[in-house]
Amino acid sequence: MRHFTRPVARELTGLALALTLAPTASAALTAPAYAGTGEHAAHMGAHHMIRYVSVKGCADKSYGQVPCGHWRLDLIDGTHVSLDDALVHSRDAKGRTEAGTTAPVTVSGDGESVAYFRRKDGRVVVREFHGPVHVMPADALPKGVAIDRAALRLSLDGGRLAVMYSDKKGGEHARVFAVSDPGNPATISGYEEFEGFSGDGSAVLVSGRTDDNTNELVAYDASGRELGRVVPPQVVSNNAPRALSADGRTVAVVTGSARKPVLKLYDMVADRVVGSVPYAGRRGSMPDMADWTGDHQVTVHVNGEGGSGARVTVLEIDTRTGATRVRDSYKVRSDAYVYASCGGG
User: Fold this and answer.
1) pLDDT at residue number 23
2) Which of 84, 86, 207, 210 is 20 to 30 Å from 114 by CA-CA measure?
3) For residue 337, which of 35, 31, 53, 17 has the smallest C-alpha distance?
4) Where are the alpha helices (DSSP H) in the chain?
5) What is the pTM of this model?
6) How far is 195 from 289, CA to CA, in rounded Å?
7) Are 344 and 109 a contacting pair, CB within 8 Å?
8) Domain holding 118: CATH number?
9) Torsion of CA 77, 330, 112, 84, to 10 degrees
10) Helices marked H in 18-145 — which ranges?
């Protein structure tokens, strides 16, 4: 399961969103809107869209530092939003607050939606930044499963949500919801790592171990039907991050070094590497996330080496030529206990 990490370690209607005082502004940015056919077409202007979410860390005698305050959304135009109704501290199986652990929160790749556990009742909700709040069923997280065993992931456009959790025996499961109509989720089980949604949100990619102790990749459609299962070559299984294309079969994986990265394209059906594209890396930066954001475009987030105020650089890579464009670059707040960037969008 994917969990938040502190920036210093490496690289996570009726309810008001209160804008904080932040007089800074940034130039308009261009971002992809992946429709599954053709390259990105939408533009991120100076209006509010989410860049990343974080929570402040405060000194604590028992833990050294703990999350405190509210979740904060940093927007691409330089303003900030306080997510006041979101649960900050995780809870154990008995409902007790865990002071040193954050509850799950995630941002869609297009920066238009954020998912979290609601503080007042523990319900999972998806808030469209310019639209309604979608409340998931009360059993989105099965009865008896604690919030501290859960994680959340949104698709690129925020249309689908995965609620991932570990059972008491350590088994991993994911319930996949259609955000606008969440009544009949699909359940995917028997994996070790939820890799993410495909570029168009119609499928998911997971990874795990076979009975022969080899690594495997498995793709499912949003209804839980298996699309493909394969033991990939080591260049794919031993590297990360990985991302599934909208075709449900092509996996992009970042290989090589930080200075000389190479994007490998692997066809799960043909069981072979079909592309090897060197691209411009960033010194001292390691890849953290990868997403397909166009038919021929993969977006990679790279995080600078440790220290407060880690720098995140977002790269758009042409999978045919390796041409690389810096879509965004920013420093995470120096007081952040944990943070989670938006995905590829």
Assistant:
1) 34
2) 207
3) 53
4) 234-237
5) 0.86
6) 10
7) yes
8) 2.120.10
9) -80
10) none
